[in-house]
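We were asked to recover a plausible sequence for a given structure. The inputs and outputs are reproduced exactly as logged, with field labels preserved.

PROBLEM: sequence recovery
POSITIONS: 119
GIVEN STRUCTURE:
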């Protein structure tokens, strides 16, 4: 229950941050719109990571998930709703964090599915 409560708090904070940044342009947003690259995304971005949403979306959510843990399935509807709520503006990039026993095997299955376009 604690994990779910913390997770929901993080999602609500993210939605609030999106609302704030849409109404108040910051100097960083002005730089991004001026064509100045944002180095923060390159730290967590992986070249061929599975994504959902348009590749040129203004916002990218990088989701680190443990492929052998079912807690991630709780986040799927929340993140999917963000993509639907802001069409064309939000992209989700999936990154696996192999923390549980058996994660390596599941990650291999997911990578094979991604290579076949079935992720």
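RECOVERED SEQUENCE:
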């Amino acid at each position: 229950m604690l994990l779910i409560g913390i997770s929901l708090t993080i999602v609500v904070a993210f939605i609030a941050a999106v609302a704030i940044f849409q109404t108040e342009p910051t100097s960083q947003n002005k730089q991004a719109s001026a064509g100045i690259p944002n180095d923060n995304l390159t730290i967590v971005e992986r070249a061929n990571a599975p994504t959902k949403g348009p590749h040129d979306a203004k916002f990218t959510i990088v989701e680190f998930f443990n492929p052998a843990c079912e807690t991630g399935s709780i986040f799927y509807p929340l993140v999917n709703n963000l993509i639907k709520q802001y069409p064309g503006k939000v992209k989700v990039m999936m990154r696996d964090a192999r923390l549980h026993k058996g994660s390596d095997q599941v990650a291999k299955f997911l990578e094979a599915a991604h290579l076949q376009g079935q992720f």
